Amino acid sequence: MTTVVSPPPTARPMLETVDGPAALRALAPARLPALAAEIRAFLVEKVSAAGGHLGPNLGVVELTMALHRVFDVTAGDVLLFDTGHQAYVHKLLTGRRDRFDVLRQEGGLSGYPSRGESAHDWIENSHASTALSYADGLAKARGLSGEAGTVVAVVGDGALTGGMAWEALNNLGAGGRGRGYGPAETDQADRLHAVSPAPPAQVPAPTGSGRGSWTSLFSRAVLELGEQHDEVVAVTAAMSGPTGLAPFAEKFPRRFFDVGIAEQHAVTSAAGLAMGGLHPVVAVYATFLNRAFDQVLMDVALHRLPVTFVLDRAGITGPDGPSHHGMWDASLLSLVPGLRLALPRDGARLRELLAEAVACASGPTAPRFPKGAVAQDVPALRTQGTVDVLAESGIRDVLLVAYGPPAAACLEAAAALAARGIGVTVVDPRWALPVSAALADLAARHRLVVTAEDSSRTGGLGSVLAQDLADHAVTTPLRTLGLPRAFIPHGERGPLLARAGAVRLADRLRGSACAGRRTRPTRPLLRRECGMTAVEAMITGSAPPDEHGTAAPCGPPPPQHRAVSPPPWPPACRGQRNRADMTAQPTPILSA
Q1: Ordered DSSP codes for 73-108
Q2: Contact, 92 vs 39, CB < 8 A?
Q3: Which of 75, 150, 536, 560 is the least buried, fewest Cβ under 10 Å from its Cβ?
Q4: Where are the alpha helices (DSSP H) in 127-245?
């Protein structure tokens, strides 16, 4: 960093009279060069003393003055500075001159636009190449609502070298796909990007059971929400059909935005839509949200904007392989302050949680669901706080926390454990983030907590719960089940999950020295050194019971296996569940 020696303070009579945009516009044009000179001298003095971005702001003095004279930010016009550190002159001209002595100091003036400082700062923008996307969304929102005012994006200081700026420019200036062919030009979904020999299948009508694919169920649910709420708009990144948004686009073409293969732009454009008073639903595959993590964090969550991210294909997806398995999003989103993550266990919960997400106005939400068919609905016995209690035996040995789709298999495992004299309570948090206070209370009342999720166990939801229990001084041991920190190969979903379960069978139970052949190994089974392994084996289905319903005997592993410890792979299971016919046979979470 270069140190600049500041000149002695001097009188700046013109700058001292400009206390807002109206005063600037009242100045005669002939006086503007002198004001620009005073602004530069002020910046050199104050920024040199406090530290900050000097050169970039010296380069936009006349530009910022011109913007505030042409556009009226007090009457609805919006200025969005792409590189936020070029907003110092804007701060000067909007009444913050007296706070530059404490620039970038605790409690002082921010070095970037700040919504808490001024109504004229729309975005707290410190990451470059984002303003065009914000402007795109905000302008679309104003177009839908009829609100007056011009949205201006100020792009400079190298911002056009960032790829996201070009994503936005392409979206703002493109749209020529299908040119010259009427059906393609009028196709709202994707301009006939790809065609099939037969017309696209219609979304199946709702059924009493709510069965069908997760995507088709979401498609119907978001369409209904669009009918009920005019502020709901939909955004996708070249995936209107695969994510189920095509029917929404057909019915509400002005409220649907396909930005092309540009997830970063999609998220920040959605932020702009939310700033304009709308509630965007951004539908993407779970794996593709990874590409826009910075935008979720800094452009949506930092501003506490109501954007709903619908994450399709969460967990193991199958033939597309490691780049498409949706196993990273939960770990990433657990880092985002204020974000609410929903994991529906069945179709009924998907509809409920999506409606709750769209009703949330305090920040971002993210329902996620797997690929494939929806399991049979699993009703709750009761609700504790925001947590659904799905099964309880009255004996509080194990608290089994099922994050969404693994719920059905966890209920089967609970029945099998109950047959061995182990009391299990199965709960579904519904909203995995933030952690419900009820989970700490439930965990404190049990001897062991086991979590099951269809995402990475590294930094996953089980890890988040473990941290929360530690914060609340809950000492109950916790075991997390989830996907490994590994690139899982391609293949059919069922065999992939079955093979993962077989790996767990060989390693986990052989390492246990406690199961023996007891038919009811009650309390001793719960000792930390052996109980976790036995309970885990029952949940994953990795220990098939023998003819007496007991686990296979366990002992020390053969020497050649001592160093082998494959990580767990439990994603969603779609086993049907009915409390009246649950049996002692465990259903693996790792089955298709």
Answers
A1: TTTT-EEEESSGGG-HHHHHHTT-GGGGGGTTSTTS
A2: yes
A3: 560
A4: 131-145, 163-173, 182-186, 214-228
Listed in sequence order, the DSSP H helices in 146-262 are 163-173, 182-186, 214-228, 246-251
pLDDT bracket for residue 57 (50, 70, 90): very high
Phi, psi of 156 (to 5 degrees): -165, -170
Residue 248 has pLDDT above 90, yes or no: yes
With residue 450 as reference, give the H or E element that holds it. strand 448-456
Give dist(CA 380, CA 428) in Å, integer: 9
Task: Provide the b/e sequence for 350-376 (b: ≥16 CB within 10 Å).
Answer: bbbbbbbbbeeeebbbbbbbbbbebbe
Two structure tokens written together for 219: 């498609």
> Which range, of 285-294, 313-322, 491-500, averages the lowest pLDDT?
491-500
Q: How many CB atoms lie within 10 A of CB 192?
A: 14
Token pair, residue 78, equals 């919006």
Distances (CA, A) of 35 to 18, 39, 54, 79: 9, 6, 18, 21
Instruction: Compute φ and ψ for 261, nearest 5 degrees.
Output: -75, 75
- CB-hemisphere CA count at 13 Å for 51? 5
Residue with tokens 């925001």: 386
Band of residue 191 on the pLDDT scale cut at 50, 70, 90: low
CA neighbor of 387 nearest in space, from 370, 405, 375, 404:
404
Q: Taking a C-beta distance cutoff of 8 angstroms, is the pair 529, 477 a contact?
A: no
Residue 200 phi, psi (nearest 5)? -60, 140
d(C-alpha 125, C-alpha 127), whole Å: 6
CA distance 497 to 318: 9
CA atoms of 114 and 124, how far apart (whole Å): 5
Specify whether the backbone of 475 is left (phi greater than 0), alpha (psi in -120 to 50) or beta.
alpha
Transcribe 522-557 into DSSP letters: TGGGGSHHHHHHHHHHHHHT-S---TTSPPPP--PP
Residue the block writes with tokens 């933030």: 434
Mean pLDDT of the chain: 81
Q: What is the mean pLDDT of residues 103-132?
A: 90
Residue range 137-173, pLDDT digits in tens: 999 999 999 999 999 999 977 788 889 999 999 988 8
Cα–Cα nearest to 63, from 127, 130, 155: 155
What's the confidence (pLDDT) of residue 550? Answer: 34
